Every structure is written in C-alpha cells, then in structure tokens.
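pls read this protein:
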Amino acid sequence: MRLDRLSLTNFRRFEGFEAQLGPRANSFLGANGKGKTSIIEAAWLLITTGQSFRTHRLSHLIRTGEKSASIHAYFTTHGVQQEMAIHIIGNRRTLSLNRKKLTSPTQALGCLVGVSISPEDLETIRGAPSSRRLLLDLTLSKSNPLYLHHLRRYSRSLQQRNALLKRDDLRTIRPFEEEMAKSALYIREQRDMFIQQLNEQCADLYSAITDKGKLSMSYQREKEELPELFEKMRKREAKVGYSLVGPHRDDLIIKLSAQPIIHFGSEGEKKSALIALKFACWSLLKEQLAEPPILLVDDVEAHLDAKRQGKLFKMIGDFGQVLVTSTDLNRERTGERFLIE
C-alpha cells in the first residue's frame, strides 16, 4: 500500500503543492513553520477520511483568505491504483473515491490504511483514557468493518440511553441497553484480542528502541457483563444523567517495569513507549491486511534523542512506504527528499 501522488490546494499555508512519492522513504525537510507537518496531516486526513491530528475544526485547514481547500491523491493497494479526494468548505467535508462522490466519509475508511506518529500523539500515553480508546477504535476499524459497525451501533444506542437518563425517563430504556450489550460484547472481544497481540509486539519493539525497562499492556474493563451492570447502576446513572459503564469507559493500561507509565515514566520513556505502540499497530495491521500500511512520522526530532533517532531510522527502513518530516538537512537518508521552503 502506498501513496503515489499527493496534491494540495489552499490547504493550510499551501496555495498549491504536489509531490510524486516513492515506494519507500519520503523525507520532507525544512525549517519549522514551513508546512512540513501539513503534508503529513493531509495524508492522515485521507487515511482517516477527514480527521486531523491537530484540530477538530476543518475550517482551520483552509488557507487564510480562501473559502475552500482540497486534498487529492492517487494511491495503490494490492496492486490496483485508486483515486481519492477530500473537499473542505467551512467545517464540512465531502469525499470522492475514484471520482464518485460518497454519501458518507466512512464509506472510504479502510481504503487507504496507515499509522501516524506525531508530537500530539504523546497524549495516547500520558492523557485521558479516551485517547487510548481512540487509538484502539481507529486501528481496529481500519481492518475490521464489522468492528466499525458495532462501534457505531453502540454509540447511537449510548446517545439514546444518555438522553433518557438525563430526563430520568427509564420506561423505554431497555431496548437501547440490549443493543449496547450486544455490540459491547463484540467490541470488547476484539479489543481484548488486539491488546494481547499488542502486548507481545510492544515488549520486543520497546527493547529494540531502549534497554530501560519492560513494556506491557492490558485491558481494563468491568468484570461483570453489561446487562447485570445496567440493572445495578440504572438509578445512580439517572441521577448523574449519563452512562457510567460500558466500552466507552474502558482503558488500555500501559506499564513499564510493572508500574503505570502515565504516573512513573519519564518523558523519554513515554516517547519510546509511544513509538513501540505505534510500530506494533503498524505490524498488526500489516498482518491483517496482507500488505504494509503507510507510516507517517512527523517531527522526528521531537520524539527521540540522537541515539534513539538512529535506531528509529534503522527500523523504519523495513516499514514499506514512510513519510517523515525533519529539520535536519544533513542526515544521510535513503529514498526521496523534498525540501519545503
């Protein structure tokens, strides 16, 4: 899987930008503030069908003074070249695949698959549980359409249940609880299996980056099943006005040498853990898709010191197509080089 050509129009600071990308390493080099991250962001928007890792407002992606922006790409998957475009007006987006307008952005999810590593991603390690659930949900949705189906069904029923709890109207709540319980069972089974695989991969990858400690991961959730918990918690939840149990409250627990890294890890250890986690996600996606997904690495100097950077560049040489940004113009690099001025 690879991006063959990427074109931007009125996106961030670019009036126009186009790059013919190579099948392996692609380095975007230049000083800070020149737009390197915007190129990685555009690729990530294509992968996630419109989600930025920098902002929740799509209007922020439009070049100052313009009314719209667009991202256009040719990409190849399983030997077949396809075309995808995202058009942004205000806070709305429309997607087209092979020049056919899609009725929903999620129709294109999974067509182009990749993993990103950016400075913002450190929240996955040190932030709230929601950031780790997002990682699980995004990664699983890319390779498993049924997971995405159950996730959306659970979310819709959760919204309805919360609305009834807020009004303290429990008369019609059970059908939504039944839908939630069915989808929650599948979501949790898939998350549990995925985290077990992550745990095995991350330990080895972390050791390849640094020899300080052993990285491990586990899934934190309620021990009781949802139907029983709903019966126990319903009155209490009605008082607070929202659901207190379910997959939307679960967490991925990351430990270093048996201690929660969120509380006891140094910044360097957290950054190394993030890279190990993202590399493990990439590796598992490769197994499931039977071809390597794209790897995006933004601002590599922000993640690791010089010694660990050397290890990182050695490792990503085996990662298929990689798009990486850097301010270091002097490092010897393989593959394509793009100077952003």
